[in-house]
Amino acid sequence: MSAPLTGKVALVTGASRGIGKGIALVLAEQGATVYVTGRTVREGDYYLPGTVGGTAAECDARGKASGGRGIAVACDHGDDAAVAALFERIGAEQGRLDILVNNAFSLSDDLLEPKGFWEKPLSNLEMWDVGVKSNYVAAWHAAGLMVPQKSGLIVAISGFAAVTYTYGVIFGTSKSAVDRMARDMAIELEPHGVASLTLWQGLTLTEKAKDNLEKMGDQMTTSITQMHGSSVEHPGRVIAALAADPEIMKRSGGEFVTAELAQEYGLTDIDGQVIQSARATRGSPVWKPIAATTDAG
Predict the structure, then answer these.
(1) CATH code at 9-292
(2) Whose CA is closest to 71, among 24, 104, 103?
(3) What is the percent of the chain with per-residue pLDDT over 90, rounded to a whole number?
(4) Which residues contact 90 (CB under 8 A, 6 or more apart)?
(5) CA–centroid distance for 164 within its chain
(6) C-alpha span between 76 and 258 (Å, rounded)
(7) Rounded mean pLDDT of the chain?
(8) Residues whose CB falls within 8 Å of the CB of residue 172, separated by 6 or more in sequence, listed in order
(9) Distance (Å, rounded) from C-alpha 171 to C-alpha 297?
(10) Which residues pair with 100 in a beta bridge?
(11) Quick check: helix, strand or coil at residue 92?
(12) 3-state SS assignment for residue 197
């Protein structure tokens, strides 16, 4: 019996480490060919461990039984020409794309510093460039491959920052924009059988999150620090279930709390724990799937 995602082609952006890496590993384990992108090529290029090649190699190992594998592509998602070349390569090598996970995001070094937005440099707008604009550019190219094949899934990684103050103005605005973008894309993609949706992550125990909690946990809000964090693979399990769901179009256009979808699909984290939703303390999604609304607005 083949794995759920055997024959599927996926692209996970920003997958040198963190959530992107976790998602890539799960998709490969379940049979997908996964293109892994990121800016870190050599260990030591970034202060935290992880490279695109390292993630791809782990994908190969995890996908050995299912036929899944990883393909590393060094790519700065703030460089539109590099992104165009990435999608041209996927089209040439695979002839299709089934899953795009828009995860790449550029977090500013002063993200957790308790200063007003006017006290932080305008260069922090890189979070908008690699986090909002980059989502649009990648989805634009992905749609060019998915629409002709009449299938596909585009997932935007967002969070409760879309409705609750988190980390600062640019961060919250970026996540809000990503959510609305995914919603409007769903409306235009719906006639072509391509789904677009957003996942709201709670606290995810990435390398950066662990480092931040250790160094600056006392400066974070208790609604964040008191969450039970998930592993980086937990959202990957949810995305794999979505990609294998024959009724995925019924979810298109919606914002979903990852923990809640996991419970719907009967999924636990890698340690067997059921991750709880932070809806009660952090806020509720705004957009329902377009199939559940009376109009496309």
Answers:
(1) 3.40.50.720
(2) 24
(3) 78
(4) 9, 11, 35, 97, 145
(5) 19
(6) 27
(7) 91
(8) 161, 162, 164, 165, 166
(9) 25
(10) 11, 154
(11) helix
(12) strand
Judge contact between 176 and 162, C-beta under 8 A. yes
Dihedral sign computed on CA atoms, order 101, 107, 111, 117: negative
Tokens 């979903």 sit on residue: 256
Amino acid residing at 75: C
Strand partners, 157: 199
Report CA torsion sign: 28, 33, 37, 40. Answer: positive
pLDDT digits (tens, 9 = 90+) for 100-147: 999 998 888 888 888 999 999 999 999 999 999 999 999 999 999 999
Domain-wise residue ranges, the chain: 9-292
Backbone angles phi, psi at 20, to 5 degrees: -60, -45
What does the pLDDT look like over 185-242, one tens digit per residue? 999 999 999 999 999 998 877 656 555 555 555 555 554 555 578 899 999 999 999 9
The per-residue pLDDT for range 9-20, each reduced to its tens digit, is 999 999 998 999
Tell me which residue has tokens 């390569």.
89
DSSP class of 116: -
